[in-house]
Write a structure and sequence with these properties.
Blueprint lengths: L2 H17 L12 E7 L4 E10 L2 E10 L2 H14 L4 H15 L24 H22 L1
Antiparallel strand pairs: 1-2, 2-3
């Protein structure tokens, strides 16, 4: 597949998650909830997690922002749901490394739709948009562990 076709496919995946976000909404009162914002561009994401016995039983998000921010939040919820908290944090580190343009060949993680966000690394101003939901999830999990 040519670079232009791949780029077009990635844009379509991002726009699909933006227009039809997965796991958008809130969860029950016993969920872990954390809100973060990006004051530079106005993105705001609130992540809701239900963690049981070290696994992300359910996850949802609310918020507003650009297509990158909301698509990334949608993709993140799909990626971590049903996985261990340890795996979710590993995915987050992997995603952050991908956003920084680091070589990821050594990692053995299934990216799925998240791979569509690789191009964001070329636009440093947009990296915070893409990582906002992931940072909120990390912070929520770490605060819950304390």
């Amino acid at each position: 597949m040519s670079f232009n076709n791949l780029d077009t496919l990635y844009r379509q995946v991002i726009m699909d998650h933006y227009k039809n976000p997965r796991n958008r909404g809130s969860l029950s009162n016993d969920s872990i909830t954390l809100e973060m914002n990006n004051p530079t561009c106005g993105d705001r994401i609130e992540v809701h997690l239900i963690v049981e016995e070290g696994f992300v039983k359910d996850v949802a998000f609310e918020g507003e922002g650009c297509s990158i921010s909301l698509a990334s939040a949608s993709m993140m919820t799909q990626a971590i749901k049903g996985h261990s908290v340890e795996d979710a944090l590993s995915m987050s580190r992997y995603f952050s490394d991908m956003m920084l343009g680091q070589d990821l060949d050594e990692m053995d993680l299934e990216l799925g739709d998240i791979e569509a966000l690789q191009g964001v690394a070329k636009f440093p101003a947009r990296i915070k948009c893409a990582t906002l939901a992931w940072k909120a999830m990390e912070k929520a999990v770490k605060e819950d562990e304390q």
